[in-house]
Write a structure and sequence with these properties.
16 helices; globular; two-stranded antiparallel ribbon; single chain; alpha/beta; 2 domains; Dehydroquinate synthase-like, alpha domain; six-stranded parallel sheet; about 50% helix; Rossmann fold
Amino acid sequence: MKDFEFHNPVKIFFGKEQMVKISSLIPAGNKVMLIYGGGSIFKNGVYDKVKEALKGFSVTEFGGIEPNPYYETSMKAVKIIKEEKIDFILAAGGGSVIDATKFIAAAAVYENGDPWKILSENEAVKASLPFGTVLTLPATGTEMNKNSVISRKSTTEKFAFSSPYSYPQFSVLLPDAAGSLPRNQAANGVVDAFVHVIEQYLTYPVNAPIQDRFAEAILITLIEEGPKVYANPADYESMSNLMWSATMALNGLIMCGVPGDWSVHSIGHELTALHGIDHARTLAIVLPGLWKVLREEKSGKLLQYGQRVWNITSGSEEERINAAIEKTADFFESLGIKTRLSDYGVKQDTIDKIVRRFEERKWLALGDRGLTTPEVTRKALEFQL
């Protein structure tokens, strides 16, 4: 097991009756900005509950955060925050709203020019407005971590940042609100959480058995509960299990002492930036292709994954690896998520563009051991045409 530090300061309130606690979590007298997305919080009743919880506070609303949040939209919120002298932000919605809020909170106090440098140049975030979240869609785990991903429409780019200043002060998790999600969004949440676990688990063995079994427990739970949620998002018990699985998938716990990869995400972000494909669906495309290319380098964990998660115990090592890859792709497909670029109208020219971008950025050795070179990226995507 590798050396590690672990600290997570986010206070979680999970369940149906937690909204009433929000008023006690925000300092009295603070001017609050409420940030939300396309309006789902009006349909699922969360907006009314939030407004009730914020009685007594001066509240400025900012809606319209996109499913893949844009830098341009976020900067409009930053302008209002500065004009209105906002003290605290409350994000209500899914991962995109929360990711945007993290960037907005950092950009509002950024003092080194264009806040885009936080993303494009990995400029360190040294301060942030305080914020809390109300989660209505399980997927990204951003409600309990310090990470954010933002797109820039004008340049068709998508970058991530991470900062200890970007942890929410609290997060209220509402499985009942997620019950009104369309089935395709519920499916996205399952796959997003699944691949988050994979990026921290399926690397190479480092004798970290408890971390492996934590990860495998989340994967097995997603395999068991995901189809139930896909069939009926209003199944409260299954949605609760999905929501907590998604939170645990990326709150820092399962990454302790083990290597991480994240090259699937780096490639997937380009497909979203260039074609607007849902984030989870880009991951479902990239993951099987990357495993096909790196099957030998990742054979140890692929075999372990196949045995412990999918009960694949017979056949040669090659056959078991093939079966593990096929089982994973079939699971995604069973949730209505296609795993081929051709399913989304993406062709060879996009692959060429992604490879050129990686070369121009000097992203020449991504992943846990620098295995994902531009040429590996090309081959992985070509497998998925």
